[in-house]
């Protein structure tokens, strides 16, 4: 456990080394929030609700989805790929720790920093500039745990994508494809309610909605019966277990093809 | 003229070597191509999902939005294919490998961009052409000679605007080293250029028209061909804006290049 905590601490420090980027990351998110405001305002065009959501709910959903995405962006897939291509993965493998937990504890550090430097300012911006109302209700109590599950799902997918570099020795294509698929199918670009019914039914069977849609619904509709949220957590937990098992299997397979040339 | 021929020959030689070196990663090309197709189709999918809930987006229907988006894809292709190396500028600056570009009797920006030729960008370009033709047919856009010439002029201007915005964003690495967040911001702004600029009002409309002219990457020039009668006069400024932004980008590049001190190793 101490080894993993040390890794997390290391990633805090590594993050701080490039702090000039903060301002632009915050700016990036604020620009997105602003553009989303105008875009969705023109989509609603004075209508009270669309697909059962009010403008305020939709706007909150979209902007917090974007902030959550920034939080979860920890480049684990790129890091693994870089280690594989450069051969430095050997240094990670000889350590008496599990490779996956090592990568995950690094992500924890980055995620926490992302959250503090990007999400907190963004939420303040939403409250003070756009005066978005936040809703209160029982659903909010389930949110922290749901976010932890989102994090685990995200980093596990990133981890598996990174492992594909054992075979391809390159990452851009598959990582970009993954980003786009998650972006679109998780509801973070357009709330899932806006999809046609058949698409919604299909997307509910995939793991991506568990990463964004389920936690975001706790935020924008926190007054549903408690069972709704327990169910959401159950779905998330199912995907966490499934993906972790898949990652373990994949790792055991992929590690056999690893070739590192020289040192 | 002779100089131009010399540069073309050099470009061809460097590119051949580059493509040869890339040939060893054939799988990567295929996967990257698929990635490119996915990322190109996302915006179309967004339009499609949205227009299932509302009749039009700020007055524009699906085919018109596809047309504007296809224009956008073609306009960003020159940056994607020819200027892709700018995404890596920050690594060269941080690690000091940028020094090598000072030691050739060539224009530095030329030499820098010639080192990379993004093959996957060609996938995007081809997809863009296909969408452009599809939308043109669906909308009944007439392509006579003056129209085609107008398309070329506006397209080149739009490409220059994209290139300039991205080059300026990449060049910030001369001062702040890690330019990724800036590039990411520029890309995000660029991604909104196929959306109807009429959704913005007041300050933001002015900003996206004149200060960070992303409106000129797709929406303003593309609507000339759609005959909707909504052309603002700003549309005809597009060649001027293209040339001006590129001049600015080149100036920023020169400023960065001349101030770079290397890493000492």
Task: Explain what you see.
The complex is a heterodimer of chains A (about 260) and B (about 260). Chain A is mainly α. Chain A has helices spanning about 1-15, 20-45, 55-70, 75-85, 90-95, 100-130, 140-165, 165-170, 170-185, 195-205, 210, 215-220, 225-255, and strands at about 50, 55. Helix content of chain A is about 75%, strand content about 0%. In chain A, a hairpin with a 2-residue loop joins β1 and β2 (about 55). Chain A is globular and about 60 Å long. The model of chain A has no long low-confidence stretch (mean pLDDT about 85). Chain B is mainly α and about 260 residues long. In chain B, α2 packs antiparallel against α3 (about 60-80) and α3 packs across α7. The two termini of chain B are about 40 Å apart. The model of chain B has no long low-confidence stretch (mean pLDDT about 85). The interface between A and B is large, with 41 and 41 residues.
What tags apply to this protein structure?
heterodimer; A: 263 residues; mainly alpha; two-stranded antiparallel sheet; 13 helices; 74% helix; B: 265 residues; 0% strand; globular
What is the topological layout?
The complex is a heterodimer of chains A (263) and B (265).
Chain A: H1 2-17, H2 21-44, E1 49-50, E2 53-54, H3 55-72, H4 76-86, H5 89-93, H6 99-128, H7 139-163, H8 165-168, H9 172-185, H10 197-203, H11 208-211, H12 213-220, H13 226-254
Antiparallel strand pairs in A: 1-2
Helix pairs in contact in A: 1-6, 2-3, 2-6, 3-6, 3-12, 4-7, 6-7, 7-12, 7-13
Chain B: H1 2-22, H2 26-53, H3 62-82, H4 89-95, H5 108-114, H6 119-139, H7 145-171, H8 173-176, H9 180-191, H10 202-211, H11 219-223, H12 238-259
């Amino acid at each position: 456990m101490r080894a993993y905590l040390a890794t997390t601490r290391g990633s805090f420090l590594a993050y701080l080394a490039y702090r000039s980027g903060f301002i632009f990351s915050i700016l990036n998110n604020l620009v997105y929030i602003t553009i989303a405001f105008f875009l969705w305002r023109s989509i609603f065009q004075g209508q009270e609700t669309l697909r059962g959501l009010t403008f305020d709910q939709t706007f909150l959903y979209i902007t917090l989805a974007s902030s959550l995405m920034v939080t979860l962006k920890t480049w684990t897939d790129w890091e693994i790929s870089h280690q594989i291509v450069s051969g430095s993965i050997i240094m990670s493998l000889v350590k008496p720790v599990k490779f996956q937990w090592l990568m995950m504890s690094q992500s924890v550090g980055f995620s926490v920093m992302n959250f503090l430097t990007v999400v907190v300012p963004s939420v303040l911006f939403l409250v003070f500039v756009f005066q978005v109302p936040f809703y209160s209700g029982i659903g909010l109590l389930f949110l922290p745990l749901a976010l932890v599950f989102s994090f685990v799902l995200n980093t596990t997918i990133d981890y598996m994508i990174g492992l594909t570099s054992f075979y391809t020795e390159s990452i851009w294509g598959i990582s970009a494809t993954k980003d786009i698929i998650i972006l679109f199918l998780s509801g973070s670009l357009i709330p899932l309610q806006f999809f046609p019914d058949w698409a919604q039914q299909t997307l509910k069977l995939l793991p991506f909605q568990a990463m964004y849609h389920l936690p975001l619904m706790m935020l924008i509709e926190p007054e549903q019966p408690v069972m709704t949220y327990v169910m959401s957590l159950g779905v998330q937990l199912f995907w966490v277990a499934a993906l972790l098992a898949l990652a373990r299997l994949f790792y055991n397979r992929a590690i056999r093809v690893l070739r590192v040339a020289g040192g | 003229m002779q100089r131009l021929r010399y540069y073309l020959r050099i470009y061809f030689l460097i590119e051949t070597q580059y493509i040869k070196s890339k040939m060893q990663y054939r799988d990567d090309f295929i996967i990257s191509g698929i990635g490119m197709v996915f990322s190109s189709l996302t915006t179309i999918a967004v339009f499609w999902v949205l227009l299932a809930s509302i009749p039009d987006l700020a007055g524009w229907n699906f085919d018109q939005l596809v047309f504007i988006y296809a224009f956008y894809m073609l306009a960003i292709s020159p940056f994607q294919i020819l200027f892709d190396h700018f995404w890596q500028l920050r690594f060269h600056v941080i690690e000091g490998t940028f020094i090598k570009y000072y030691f050739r009797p060539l224009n530095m920006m030329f030499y820098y961009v010639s080192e990379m030729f993004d093959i996957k960008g060609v996938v995007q370009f081809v997809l863009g052409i296909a969408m452009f033709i599809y939308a043109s047919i669906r909308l009944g856009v007439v392509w006579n000679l003056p129209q085609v010439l107008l398309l070329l002029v506006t397209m080149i201007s739009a490409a220059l605007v994209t290139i300039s915005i991205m080059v300026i964003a990449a060049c910030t690495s001369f001062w702040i080293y890690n330019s990724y967040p800036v590039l990411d911001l520029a890309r995000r702004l660029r991604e909104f250029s196929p959306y109807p600029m009429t959704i913005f009002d007041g300050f933001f409309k002015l900003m996206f028209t004149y200060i960070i002219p992303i409106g000129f990457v797709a929406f303003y020039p593309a609507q000339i061909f759609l005959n909707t009668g909504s052309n603002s006069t700003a549309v005809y400024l597009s060649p001027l804006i293209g040339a001006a932004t590129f001049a600015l980008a080149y100036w920023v590049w020169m400023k960065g290049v001349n101030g770079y001190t290397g890493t000492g190793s």
